[in-house]
Description:
Blueprint: H1 9-27, E1 29-31, E2 39-41, E3 47-49, E4 55-57, H2 60-75, H3 78-87, H4 97-110, H5 118-135, H6 145-161, H7 167-185, H8 189-225, H9 235-270, H10 273-306
Antiparallel strand pairs: 1-4, 2-3
Amino acid sequence: MIDSRGYSRSRIASRAIEAYLIQILKTGFFHADPHPGNLAIDVDEALIYYDFGMMGDIKSFTRERLLGLFYSVYEKDAKKVMQGLIDLEALQPTGDMSAVRRSIQFFLDNLLNQRPDQQQTLAAIGEDLFAIATDQPFRFPSTFTFVIRAFSTLEGIGYILDPDFSFPKIAAPYAQELLDLRQQQRSGPQLVQEIRKQANDARTSTISMPYRVQQIEEIVKQLESGDLKLRVRVLESERAARKATILQMATMYTVIGGTLLNLGVTFTSQGSQMFANGSFIGAGVFLTLLIRSMQRVNKLDKFEKMI
């Protein structure tokens, strides 16, 4: 019907994303279930939303942080993106943050411009991804559950309507509009206030610089004297140790499960069916644990092949 009426598929896909960016970043009140059954096209190709039983609300301070994160992604600044995620409580400032920063920068430099092969992507940042997976610094705030779900749905609609659909291309003009608006907001008194803040930060850094140099000297002395030790992460060793632990547990599950199975057979031959059934159930439990352990080993092996 869309084609028969001469509507533009690419324009409809673009408007779906633009409308959602406006709802989330400008109004903070958005439709939380924009699947195809809840969307229609008017005669002028305007979007019509149905079924407002599932709506989402983003508070003003959270929306400001989202805007800051949006700016940072547009500027491809990994440090600012990290800080934005921390402000949104989606990233905990713990663990190997250097690996997080490198991975974010990789995605900003590559995935925003093209859709590379997944295996090549994992191969390029495999070690960093392993460090991130080990430390688990990312959290998923409940506030954005519906946001991510809605964007996933809209992205699927976009690719169905237009094979050349690209979220970054659609969001770029909108991002430029937001950047221009931000520059206007920073003019006048706010600009003076920001310059004053930067001057204060520079003065503070200048004053604290001798103390920081002294701290560096003390750390170097501690390293030389052996009073301070550095923990160096060897990711290959960590993966091997994790795999060995899983295999060790799998061996234990096999031994216990086999023992219970033998006991079940013995009890059955002796006529103690109740004890036999209990042994068989226990053997089944440990067999299940063994299968899960082997699945975890296979996942680790698959990940190592990718990186």
